[in-house]
Design brief:
This protein is of the alpha+beta class and 437 residues long. The protein has helices spanning 3-19, 36-45, 65-72, 117-127, 149-156, 201-212, 227-232, 251-260, 307-315, 328-336, and strands at residues 47-51, 57-61, 85-91, 97-107, 110-115, 133-137, 139-145, 157-158, 169-174, 177-183, 191-197, 217-219, 273-274, 319-326, 358-359, 361-365, 368-379, 384-392, 401-406, 414-421.
């Protein structure tokens, strides 16, 4: 693709995504089961069960399966033992994230990929020369997270949970069915993801919900499901960054997704954009692992796509990830404008944007742009409006004062004072010996 046509295609994508209405993510079931405040408190005070079964699953196996994964991923696969998992990140040659999710090693020659790395890995396996095969799986994935999650699962499961270390997995039995208990915590709290064949999903869900009543378990609705990702700094695609698969130069992969993958949901290639941040090229919304706070996933012990670009960036990083805490009075003023004469400021949905869209807003210091705020949301636990921000490294220190420009180009805009804070914002409670719980 020549430079002119690439620039035109990139600009047209931005313009088209500015017009996209967005959509309500169907994956988490109901919007609310009790109410979003009650459900949001659950992962701090009791626990929740949430349904991530909409995420894709792919088993890759064979003598060279590990070589395929290593070639595509920034992660090291040295000392990656059977029974372990990890957050897997895959990039383009520029070091920008194409796909990210979770990989589990189930045997010496077999791995299960969850989320978008399943697509990118299968595409490269079909076009590469690896002694490996793949097959799509249809698994339920129920996350039970929060301080009482272990008590809930011990009440319903046969099999040991306390000897499963963080980011490891093992078998348990629920209602006579073998279930994989994967110890992970997307809420930044103690918890497990339970996985198994879809034909047992309803039975497993109902058993957990019934057992959880004694321990304050809540079902997690879609309205507040991603606030835990915001507090714990797990940046999701389409909210914090746009994966580089939408680059015009990825046309072959895009066509493969559309033509060959009937399981692809509409969000894989469509990322609606709004907010005060503007750019002509879609790559302005791409992010590297360094910019997303995932530098510790990168291992230069092997060759992989994007290694050269990431080596240079790690040596001299330009931007990093922080949390922004928005000024209460300025936020209240946005809502107050609804009760005043004239055109109000852009509405702030509570607790966050319900349509799946990327709210990306300019972040300024002394009226100069220094970053992009994304993934705005209200934490009832902290009683604060928060966002994640990719910011220039010289402004990353906690306590730094910045300004977020709230509102669409051409409409009323409000400058909101904000303060830089660490990412994750909440204490990380995922680790520790379960025998001491």
């Amino acid at each position: 693709m020549d430079e002119v046509s690439r620039d035109t295609a990139a600009r047209e994508y931005v313009e088209r995504m500015r017009e996209e209405p967005g959509y309500i993510h169907p994956g988490w079931g109901q919007s609310e089961y009790t109410n979003w405040i009650d459900e949001q408190l659950a992962w701090k005070e009791t626990c929740y069960i949430g349904d991530w079964s909409f995420i894709s699953d792919l088993e890759v196996s064979g003598p060279e399966a590990i070589d395929l994964l290593a070639d595509l991923s920034v992660n090291s696969f040295e000392n990656f033992a059977v029974g372990r998992g990890k957050h897997i990140v895959q990039c383009n040659e520029d070091g920008k994230v194409l796909a990210e999710g979770v990989v589990r090693r189930t045997s010496e020659e077999a791995f299960i990929l969850h989320s978008t790395p399943s697509y990118w890995t299968e595409f490269n396996l079909q076009r590469g020369d690896y002694d490996a095969t793949c097959r799509e799986l249809d698994l339920f994935k129920f996350q039970v997270q929060g301080p009482t999650s272990l008590s809930v699962l011990e009440a319903v499961a046969d099999g040991s949970l306390r000897d499963i270390e963080f980011i490891h997995f093992g078998p348990i039995d629920i209602e006579g069915h073998e279930v994989t208990a994967f110890r992970m915590g997307m809420a930044g709290e103690l918890g497990f993801e339970l996985q198994g064949p879809q034909e047992h999903a309803d039975e497993i869900w109902d058993a957990i919900v019934e057992a959880g009543g004694e321990f304050g378990l809540r079902r997690l609705g879609g309205r507040t499901a991603t606030i835990n990702h915001l507090e714990a700094c797990f940046p999701p695609r389409g909210r914090v960054f746009i994966p580089a698969i939408v680059d015009p130069e990825m046309d072959e992969y895009q066509q493969w997704l559309l033509e060959d993958m009937d399981r692809v949901s509409r969000d894989i290639l469509s990322y609606p954009i709004e907010g005060s941040f503007e750019a002509d090229d879609i790559s302005a919304w791409f992010r590297s692992p360094v910019e997303l706070g995932w530098e510790n996933r990168i291992a230069f012990d092997h060759d992989f796509v994007g290694r050269e670009a990431l080596e240079a960036e790690v040596e001299n990083p330009r931007r990093t990830m922080v949390t922004l805490v928005w000024d209460d009075a300025d936020v209240v003023d946005v809502y107050a404008s609804l009760f005043e004469e004239g055109e109000p400021y852009k509405f702030m949905e509570m607790p966050n944007k319900q349509q799946w869209k990327m709210e990306s807003d300019d972040v300024l210091v002394d009226e100069e742009p220094v970053g992009v705020s994304t993934f705005r949301g209200y934490s009832y636990y902290f009683r604060e409006m928060l966002s994640l921000c990719t910011i220039e490294v010289e402004h990353r220190e906690p306590g730094t004062e910045v300004t977020v420009v709230w509102g669409e180009p051409g409409g009323p805009q409000k400058e909101i004072a904000a303060t830089v804070a660490p990412a994750p914002y909440k204490t990380d409670n995922r680790f520790g010996n379960l025998n001491s719980v």
